[in-house]
Amino acid sequence: MAHDHAHDHGHGEAAHGKPKTTLYLITAVVLTIITAVEVWIFFIPAIKESAAFIPILLVLSAIKFAAVVMLYMHLKFDSKLFTQLFVGPLIIAGGTMIALLALFGQLSK
Amino acid sequence: MATVASSPPYSAAAAKAPSGVWDWITTVDHKKIGQLYLYTAIFFFIWGGIEAAIICAQLAKPNMNLVSAEMYNQLFTMHGTTMVFLAIMPLSAAFFNYLIPLQIGARDVAFPRLNAFSYWVYLFGGIFISLPILFQVAPNGGWFGYAPLTTAPYSPEINIDFWVLGLQILGVASLAAAVNFITTIINLRAPGMTLMRMPIFTWMSFVVQFLIVLAFPVITIALFFLMFDRVFGTTFFLVSAGGDPLLWQHLFWIFGHPEVYILILPAFGLVSEVLPTMSRKPLFGYPVMVYSGILIGFLGFGVWAHHMFSVGMGPVADTVFSMTTMLIAIPTGVKIFNWIFTMWGGQIRFTSAMLFAIGLIALFTIGGISGIMHSSAPADLQQTDSYFVVAHFHYVLFGGAIMGIYAGTYHYFPKMTGRFMNETMGKWHFWTNFIGMNVTFFPMHFSGLLGMPRRIYTYDGGQGWDTFNLLASIGTAILICSTLIFLVNFIRSRKHGAVAPANPWDGASLEWSIPSPPPEYNFAELPQVTSRYPLWDLNHPEMTEGVDHSSADAAQVEAAHATPMHIETETRTAKELGIPMPVNTAKPVVAAFLLVAMLSGLLFYKNGSMTIALTLMVGGALAFAGTMYAWLYAPLEEEH
Amino acid sequence: MSHYTTTGLDNRKIALWTFIGSECMLFGSLISTYLVYKGRSLVGPFPHQPWTDPATGQTYPAILDIPITTASAFVLLMSSVAMVLAYEAVKHRHDPKVTFWDKVFGNSKLWLSVTIILGAGFLGFQSFEFTAFYHEGLTLQRNLFGSSFFLLTGFHGAHVTLGVLWLMSLLATDIKRGLGPKDAGTVDLAALYWHFVDVVWILIFTLVYLIE
């Protein structure tokens, strides 16, 4: 007879806790605020023309990116494997992008 | 106390299995799919070889007129495209398919139907991109398709469109398979098979799948840009609009460099299986072999512009890429040494498989040396676009990848078919191959350094190249004979070879613990793995004494000796054993066909035949969506 | 039908994250191309500056409309919120629902529908934008900006479209037989895909629209 073992209690999936509704809604508010800030500083010439504008935007987007990935895509609560499967390609993609920008002279301002 | 039962040849289960054409068309069994890849890829290897033979015949003497310049362009373009995408990658895929589940102790891959789909997309895509040469409209812009040559103003005809669409189709096959194998290797390893207990072939294949996942999307985008430029008039590579042809080169080589590691790592993996078995010694430095493979994969994304040293990127870029290229030679060289140390002190059996494995070590090293010479940007300015490069990559791809694949074929043929390939013919094959390969490609180092450019359909005599070209053509003739010997051996041995037992080479890994050929379900009982060399721990404990067993391992090995590892001798069918098997289904082949039909609609669109174009594209897309829907809602296995 | 797995995780989830990894490179190439060609178009219209054609005298406005795109970005962001609520609702379908808010948040059909509507809304914004740009003179073929912008956002829009279709088929199943905890894994696949598509837009919004 078959001797397979059933091993698929999905960690986190079937595990019953309370729904994280409050966390998600708070995150939604934070994401909205950050988006609003991003657009707001776009319309403030003093900030927009300063050298800090792009770094600020990049940081704010990175926070939004991380929030959605870690919380909504629940990387934070899942097996580390998924984080590895995502972060590896992300690093390679990011590195390649930076290299291409450098090679085409878009990084020397 | 170990019981190693020798399994009967042609286990009853295999003999009873239905084997009509329809069974092969609807199969989702990784072993059958692996064999489909193998036969198809051997066919395309011959196809690409004929293209090469014509090229070599044309170049044998100065100013020959065997083929026109235009035909010559089609020949070298298709030779490269065929060998890379239709021969070497699918030959590797044959082994991924056949071996990976067996080596990790699984019954099949994670997504058997997706697996079949990948094969059929490869077959139909291969036909799509190969037929045009018979009508003299084959792609003619080189296998790397540089813009702006391949853009509409310079290549208005349909040839390049076949190339763009064909590669997109083939990319789908590879990407789907990569996702499949990554999931399989992560999630279907038998109990006790940690990542560091996996056979090296599976490890190298694992790295390769990630290379595919990361590299193929880049060429997908590059091809979309080229296609849009050609069909819809976008400006990506249009210089008059400010477009930069170098964008194509960068995007192509960001894919193209990892691609060459995709081509070689599986062969490295196969050699890493053959060498220890045939030396009766564990692989020297297993962890280092794993880490160097991973490092090669990772660093492989940082060297691409060494294909572009002559385009004028500037000294900083040239230097950076020179250094990363030199760096990547280190993990590669480490493997060579580990293989040599594996053989050192071993009791070596010079089977055909072993000869090819040793051949890879020797010839890849030569290819690696010319590679290191390329890595210096100033030196490369002389070598680039000359036959020196042709010599380099044929040493690493023919002397490397192909020889490794030959090694794997001789080694695993008994497992797949239950019969040995003929060893005498194997040795004739090896020596003619080795000699032929060197006679063909070694002279190219010289003609290259003496200035012979690539991709010229003829040349004037008296420039110092004549002898070298003649030698290359003679070598090609030897290679043709050699390949014939292999083909005869391969075909005859399937029915007439000596019968082979489960473990004909006294191998150490799980694939050798099941009958040859394996029953449809592979393992009646999922094996409990307690070591990196399960069968040697069982049969030859003295051989694995020196292997680093962790204390947990050692205890388990002790326990394993108390309760012997299960050697599979089961010959009943899956049904009799109550093992649920995936059902055969035509959905993958239908979906593959529709995918190709859908994309070929673009050819008609560009041509102006709107009715046909829209029928194919829209109708094809709808039918494809319907097939996918039916596929996703159909259960994989019989209901029970 | 449960099968042995090494990690205890769902095969399909591993496959989807691997696929998402490949999508990082796909969109990475598209975004890189856009950024590499930024500022290199020889003729307008341009994203952030108006332009007068010296040859014809025709004026083109700055093409990108930040307020409208902010609205569409917000819509897509909120669709991710709805998606995550839909997933939770499916997972906790059998939990007792006491308060009014329990019932609201526990209604998977509601949140799937909201996700679909918001996703379709985003696509509506995109269609509106693209048509407006077209009429203002920005075509695929006009300049590097047109080619790289439309291909980048077009690929993204195609991904959103496929996501909407996927969600619609999930909603259909929910209506037909109800989605419960045993479907959580399947719904999670769609959710992860959807969130990733949203995350890509977060990057595009900043790199294309906000940075000049």
Question: Can you characterise this structure?
Answer:
The complex is a heterotrimer of chains A (109), B (640) and C (212). By secondary structure, chain A is mainly α. Chain A is 64% helix and 0% strand. Chain A is built from 4 helices and no strands. In chain A, helix 1 runs antiparallel to helix 3. Chain A is flat and about 50 Å long. Chain B has 20 helices and no strands. In chain B, helix 6 packs antiparallel against helix 7, helix 11 packs antiparallel against helix 13 and helix 19 runs antiparallel to helix 20. The longest helix of chain B has 36 residues. Chain B is globular and about 75 Å long. The N terminus of chain B is likely disordered. Chain C is mainly α. Chain C has one domain: Cytochrome c oxidase, subunit III, four-helix bundle (Four Helix Bundle (Hemerythrin (Met), subunit A), Up-down Bundle), CATH 1.20.120. The longest helix of chain C has 34 residues. Chains in contact: A-B, A-C, B-C. At the A-C interface, helix 1, helix 3 and helix 4 of A face helix 1, helix 2 and helix 6 of C.
The main pleated sheet of chain A reads as: none
The helix/strand class of chain A is mainly alpha
How do the helices and strands follow one another from N- to C-terminus of chain A? Answer: HHHH
- Which strand order does the major sheet of chain C show? 1-2
Q: Oligomeric form of this entry?
A: heterotrimer
Kindly give the count of domains of chain C. 1
Shape annotation of chain A: flat
Q: Which class best fits the helix and strand makeup of chain C?
A: mainly alpha
C-alpha end-to-end distance of chain A: 70 Å
Output the CATH class name of chain C.
Answer: Mainly Alpha
Residues in helix, % of chain A: 55-70%
- Reading the helices and strands of chain C in chain order gives HEEHHHHH
Give the rounded overall mean pLDDT of chain C: 95
Largest interface: chains, residues each: A-C, 55 and 61 residues
Task: Briefly note the CATH topology name of chain C.
Answer: Four Helix Bundle (Hemerythrin (Met), subunit A)
- CATH homologous superfamily designation of chain C: Cytochrome c oxidase, subunit III, four-helix bundle
Under the CATH scheme, which architecture of chain C would be assigned? Up-down Bundle
Strand residues, percent of chain C: under 5%
